[in-house]
Amino acid sequence: MVVQSLAQPLVNGILLGGLYALIGIGMSMVFGIMKLTNLAHGDLLILSSYLSFGITQSLGLNPLLTVILVTPVMFFVGYAFQNLLLNRMLGKGAESPMLVTFGISIILQNSLLAIFSPDARALTSNLASQSVIITNYLSIPVIYLVDFFAACFVILILNFFLKKTYPGRAIRAASDDGNVAKLMGINIKRIYSIAMGIAMMTAAIAGVLVGMTYNFYPYTGTQYLIIAFGVVVIGGMGSIGGTLVAGVILGLAQVLGAHFFGTEMQLLSGYIVLLAMLVLRPQGLFGHN
Amino acid sequence: MLKRLTSNRSIKYSALGLLVLVLLTVPLWGTQYLVMLFLLISLYVAFAQMWNLLAGYAGLISLGQQIFIGLGGYTLAVLTEYYGLTIWQSILMGGLISGVVAAFLAFLLFRMKGVYFTIASWITAEIMVVVFSNWAYVRQGMGIFIRSAYKLSTNDIYYAALALGISSVILVQIILRSKLGLGLMAMRDNEGAAETMGVEIFKSKLYCFIISAVVTGFTGGVLYLSQAFIQPTAAFSISWTVAVIFIVIIGGIGTVVGPIVGAVIYVLLQQFLSQYVGIGMLILGVMAITVILIAPKGIMGTLQQKLRFEIFSSRRI
Amino acid sequence: MTSNNVLLKVEGIDVSYGDFQALRKVKLEVKEGTVVSVIGANGAGKSTLFQAISGLQKPSEGKISFMNNDITGCLAHEIVAQGISMVPEGGRVFPGLSVLENLIIGSYTKDARKKKTKLLRRTYDLFPILLEKANQLAGNLSGGQRQMLAIGRALMSDPKLILFDEVSLGLAPLVVKDIYKQIEAINQEGTTFVLVEQDVRRSLRASEMSYVMLAGEIVLSGKSSELSEESVRKAYFGI
Amino acid sequence: GTKSASESSGGISAEAQRADKRGYILIGIPSPSTGPLAGFGEASPWVENRALTEINKDGGILVKELNKKLPVKIKIVDTESNPTKAADVASKLVLDDKVDMLLVLHTPDTVNPVSAVAERYGIPTVSLDEPVDAWLAGGPYKWSYHAFWTVDDLSKQFMSIWGSASDQNKTVGYLFPNDSDGIVFEKIFSQKLPAEGYKIVDPGRFPNGTKDYSAIINQFKKENVQILTGVMIPPDFAAFLKQANQLGYSPKIVTVGKAYLFPTDVKAIGGTLAQGLTSEVWWSPYNSYKSSLTGESSKELCDAWTQAAGKQWTPVLGFNYAGMEIVADVLKRTASLDKEQIRQTIGQTDLNTMVGPIKYNEDHYSKTPLLGGQWTQGQGGSWNLEIINNTQHPDSPTTAKIIFPLP
Amino acid sequence: MSEIITVENLTVAFGKHKVLDSLSMGVQQGEVLGVIGPNGAGKTTLLNTLSGRIKPQGGRIVYQGIEITRVSPAQRCRMGIGRTYQVPCPFENLTVYENILVGGVHGAGFSERKARDKCLEILSFTGIAEKRDILAGKLTLMDRKRLEVARALATNPKVLLLDEVAAGLTEVEVKAVMQIVENIKNMGVTIIWIEHILKTMLEATDQLMCLAEGKNITCGVPQEILASKLVEEVYLGVEDA
Ligand SMILES: Nc1ncnc2c1ncn2[C@@H]1O[C@H](COP(=O)(O)OP(=O)(O)OP(=O)(O)O)[C@@H](O)[C@H]1O
Ligand SMILES: Nc1ncnc2c1ncn2[C@@H]1O[C@H](COP(=O)(O)OP(=O)(O)OP(=O)(O)O)[C@@H](O)[C@H]1O
Ligand SMILES: [Mg+2]
Ligand SMILES: [Mg+2]
User: Fold this and answer.
1) Is E138 in the pocket of ligand 1 (CB under 6 A)?
2) Tens digits of residue pLDDT in C174-203
3) Cβ-defined contact of B274 to D112 (cutoff 8 Å)
4) Is E20 domain-assigned?
5) Alpha carbon of residue E37 to chain centroid
């Protein structure tokens, strides 16, 4: 009986965690590796949702397919963002770039409002309402499964990229010591721009899936920023694999918190687990100091 | 050489004295609106000085200072509404409670370093939102009207704010010139080396955190005097700290004058932009980026670098 | 092995940090296949000279050419691609990367990537400790181990010219001896070296040409075999 | 008209002199133009300007002290949906722009801080569109007057909707978050519902922004909840509804406040999930009220909006319009810009507006009527709010029969 | 004379790798102990453990008769243990003078006025007096090393831990450093000194200890140690012909 009633929250928590990880992964990369606090991460994610929305409206594509178009667009958005703005303040401390990203955040929110109006939007598809029913006590929404597997897929690819490819290693080297990285033949401005572009590609995928799972508005980005921060901090900055575990922990904490202590404890239990993790492992699960 | 220095100094002090005099007499010659502007500026100066003390000097970049704004405001609301304490008693208590809470939080938060501290401080503030939204004693999400503030005149609040603003500047200056300040700056640059040179890391951070919490708590109290209505999402909103980050970074982080310049710009800009409905915030964002692109170290930071001159210097010679 | 081709030519460069002029009209010539040493007291401008050559500092005056190409305005990463590699002073490694990754990053340039495996073997032969610590974070290495890693990493780009700042800094005597032997061996294979070394005797012994710097200027230069230790000392302390 | 010019100017109030100098009467309107509440502010300033055209048609409003008519101007400022900002901009309107009155609408986050500012600076203020109960906490008021419905009315309205659908087990599931609306509403619902024989299943006050509702849904399933009620922000309710559907939970009737106020919210829920959702209706084009300014009907106002903005009507339209009606009426009756006089005239208001009769009681509020509505999908996929219940105000017609149970 | 610092069975491990392996040693009050050993032998780790930056897994450290194994680094500094870093880590945004002042005010516990005189003295003593108002971030490597010594001195140490302060210096500069160390010694300060440049260090050291793989392989009078076969093998290498 206990098992039966626990099955659903457990599965939901884990799958929700996948989505959380996906939201946080791009953040983990810029935050953990490039030491950049990107306060616009959530808004850029929602920008992708809107892009996808625009495409579905005009081309009538299935929202899931818009990923093919949205990710490259977001790559260029990220590339340009880094190249035109953030690269200009390399080595000038962590606070100035933070303010720039904050500027971008409010510009994005208000531009989205101006373009798309304050109306609620959603990327509707028949996926959203389907579930793979397993038993009476357990049913798994298809969209959750898609979210989770997309997260795993992105994490695998990104991990491979950062750990095993030259550009990936170059990104990490550049953030460790920019001047010495130049001496290795790394064009650090370019490599940073590429890194931001890639981070935005993951945000694009997250944005499309978030848009298919939840409604969104021009101002929804902030709440995803918090989730992203939580995931990054639990997982350990820059630990790409850590984000998945962190996402799942956060998802489980919330869903199980709601299950055992009542719904009012949902966010709170997530936060408390987060803080507890931080106090016990101040450098995150997979981080090192 | 020495003579020039001293005359320079006396010019500086008379200028500062004159400035204080002007500020003190604003209600006599200015409109009520001008008084309100100076009120807001003074409060943001106090708040920004405290954030700057943490971030610019102690290297503690906090995204959770709204905790103390909220606590200051809520203490004011609860004590005046429920217990009939006077406004000034309540504000004093708000500062003290903020200090106590800060001391407690320090044991949690100081285990974390760098950005981990930053995020944890924000998460703590979000926890405050959830707690206050569920806490029947403070009327949950409904919020509390601070009715005793209805009767207060803008001038009264202005003097409280001004006192807070000026004393925050003096306080920061005193701290920076003290043993504590030197330790903080050393710690910001290299914690390990500072520690092996005798700087008590935890204690220094703790004092700094508590001081800034107390003053921010006072600021919260006075801010909510002019607001007269408090509810959890706004009181513990990240937007307080975002505003203060804007102020300190635009003005120049790690300088004493920077937060003052930043506060003036921020308040005037906010007021000016409120007439451009819908695009006001957009312009604010563009402004933030432009200023930082032109002056990456903030206005005062960049000016000081160019002119090699500091109005309030914490340099030892 | 010595040929007469001039590999690197520095023609009267000036470099300043703000108001402070760190290099004045510095002239230097490095022939292909030789070992050249730069000697000078603390603050003489040796590191600044290296930074100017490798593109980290822009000369305000003068010209630097490498294999007859003008590289004065080139960015650091472009210069590396042309075949100049530098060991920065004080063993600056990438602390967040493992030892192996540090080495692999060393062969970032297109040409070096192809020879990665071979170069890696050579590095491990030179510094066996690096193989032992291959999967550890470079940030956890001891001071001397870092220096070794920095040297190994520079060798990984298989450069035509290596700029070597503070060769023996922090290394145990045994290792220092080894390194000079290796420099000789690698030089035999055709790689050119410019060394900064504090031990005057050792640097005169290891090089063919020497330049002595004092307060941003070259005050003495010549064949190492023809310079006496005394004259060098005199030159660089300006007595 | 026997007084000489010099005499009268000596006796004129500062307010009147100022208005004379600038040539108009100024009304300050803090409104959420941006931020999460921007949907509420969307109809501004279109509605206000429509009313203004009528108000200023014959030169505006007579000011006795000046012995002439002055046009009315409005100044809308953005609260950014932030209570702190709302208080700031309201203060600026009072101190800098020196407005003669404040008009404020839309949710406690906008109205409460502005009411507090009004009391501080002593400025006559008319507010609408926030449940009366939440607004009353700031009282007793001297300068602020409010019009909207009470939560008590709302609970009655909800129960009459459920009453018109016979076949359910009277087990009600709560969806109240821990924001101000959620808390106020839950308290009153919990007093009223059991008295009418309803059994309550309350999963607790959850925070806004909750992403997973499976715990609630499972509890409702287990307790066989057939009626859902509450007050939720639209994105959260949409998430809830989708997840309920995915988990195979289908209540017989859903009546949730605020969650699908705007047609776009309904559309964004996606598919046909929103079919049959019921809610309270504050105002609709189908009611019988007319503009006190022009006599135009609610329907005409809606049609004009649809034509101008290309959007469906929303209940906000009527309230924004009614606010302007009250302001115009008060100014006309006072015929003076003296603040104390304006304040007193507001208290004596007795006006039939676009949202119903307004008559403030001694606690400074006036209740506006509620109806019951249901969303149905029409041809071409558009969503329409039909009026299915008028038990509380039988003079307003219903437009359809309730669909029950939910498809 | 008594031992001012005694180390018993000190063990430090990172993961499985034992960097200090049950190391025991001691320094007499007022003497200079030279420490040599191959790269990675654990010399810096020993200093880190003595100064409290690293907590040992086993063993104890006794200072002036008091066990300080669990005492915080700041506390140890105030008790009189000062140190330099092998990789200099100045406070980059403070001036040279302020860098030193930190030691005087916090480490030595002087009032700022009293510390001032002391710091000025140290500035000229270490030869960076003319750089005193320069931001430490702009110093050359050598000046950073001098600053390291100056900062450590400012804490008014009874025991000074030096980590390769002469590395990278020219011969003349090394001589100057030697002189500085000599002077410090004459003030009665006990010194533990890690260095790879033996020639110079020898003159000043009373005892020489050789570490290898975390063990104290031999310790004694410098000449004897250098002559030992073992040390030649692990550290010096066979002298060139
Ligand atoms: N970033 C900088 N900003 C300002 N001045 C600098 C900077 N780097 C070096 N200098 C100055 O330039 C001069 C030359 O420095 P450089 O590092 O080239 O000397 P060096 O010969 O390598 O000395 P060392 O033997 O100490 O390494 C020094 O006087 C130094 O103070
Ligand atoms: N934090 C750490 N994590 C893992 N290994 C470490 C860490 N710190 C040091 N080590 C290892 O411990 C060993 C000893 O390091 P230590 O710095 O004490 O050497 P050292 O004797 O000072 O050498 P050098 O003469 O090169 O400075 C080295 O092999 C190093 O890789
Ligand atoms: Mg150098
Ligand atoms: Mg060492």
Assistant:
1) yes
2) 888 888 888 898 899 889 999 998 888 888
3) no
4) yes
5) 15
Query: Where does a domain end: E112, E135, E156?
Result: E156
CB hemisphere CA count around B237 (13 angstroms): 16
How far, in Å, are C39, D154, D327 from residue D364 at the CA level? 90, 20, 15
Give yes or no: residues E98 and E213 share one domain: no
A185 → closest Cβ in C56, C88, C157: C157
Decide: pTM greater than 0.80: yes
Distance from CA of E140 to the nearest CA of C (A): 6
List chain B domain ranges.
34-237
Same domain for E165 and E59: yes
Size of interface B-E (CB pairs under 8 A): 91
Question: Which among D82, D116, D182 has the least Cβ separation from residue B234?
Answer: D82
Domain with E107, as residue range(s), is: 90-156
Q: How far is the CA of C59 from the centre of ligand 1 (A)?
A: 15
Residue D290 in 3-state DSSP? strand
CATH architecture type of domain C1-83+160-239:
3-Layer(aba) Sandwich (3.40)
Co-location of E97 and E203 in the same domain: no
* CB-CB neighbours of D6 under 10 Å: 7
Give the pLDDT confidence of E34-46 residue by residue, as tens digits.
999 888 899 999 9
Nearest CA residue ID for atom 9, ligand 1: E140
HSE-CB for D196 with a 13 A CA cutoff: 19
Report whether A254 contacts D211 (CB < 8 A).
Answer: yes
The token duo for A87 is: 């690269």
How many Å lie between the alpha carbon of B46 and the closest alpha carbon of chain E? Answer: 25
What total number of domains does chain E contain?
Answer: 2
Kindly report the nearest CA distance between residue B134 and chain A, in angstroms: 8
The most distant pair of C-alpha atoms in chain B lies apart, rounded to whole Å, by 66
Three-class secondary structure of residue E69 per DSSP:
coil
Q: Of the residues E137, E156, E175, which one is the last residue of a structural domain?
A: E156
> Which residues of C make CB contacts under 8 Å with A?
54-56, 75-77, 80-81, 85-86, 88, 92-97, 101-102, 104-106, 108-109, 113, 137, 153, 157
Strand duo D356-358 + D365-367: pairing: unpaired
DSSP D403: P
Q: Would you say residue E167 lies in a domain?
A: yes
Domain at E36, CATH number: 3.40.50.300
The full set of domains in chain A, from first to last, is 2-280 (1.10.3470)
Are residues E241 and E176 part of one domain? yes
Give chain D's contact residues with B (Cβ, < 8 Å): 31, 33-34, 75-78, 80, 82-84, 87-89, 91-92, 95-96, 108-109, 112-113, 115-117, 119-120, 134, 137-138, 178-180, 182-184, 205, 207
The residue that leads in pLDDT, E217 or E72, is E72
CA–CA separation, E241 and E230 (whole Å): 20
Is the ipTM higher than 0.90? The answer is no
In a domain, E222, yes or no: yes
Strands E207-212 and E81-83 turn out to be unpaired
Q: Which residues line ligand 2 (CB under 6 A)?
A: C 140-145, 170; E 14, 19, 37, 39-45, 86
Could you report the per-residue pLDDT of B250-298, keeping only the tens digit for each? 998 888 899 999 999 999 998 888 878 778 888 888 988 998 888 888 8
Which of C176, C107, C92, C175 lies closest to C138 in space, CA to CA?
A: C92
Question: Quick check: B198 and E107 CB within 8 A?
Answer: yes
Closest ligand to C-alpha of residue C41 is: 1
- Shortest CA gap B76–chain A (Å): 26
- For residue C143, the CA-to-ligand 4 centroid distance in Å is 5
Pairing between strand A131-133 and A139-141?
Answer: antiparallel
E205 and E186 part of one domain: yes
Q: Is there a single domain that holds both residue E167 and residue E198?
A: yes
- How far, in Å, are A43, A212, D221 from residue D268 at the CA level? 19, 11, 25
Within a domain: E27: yes
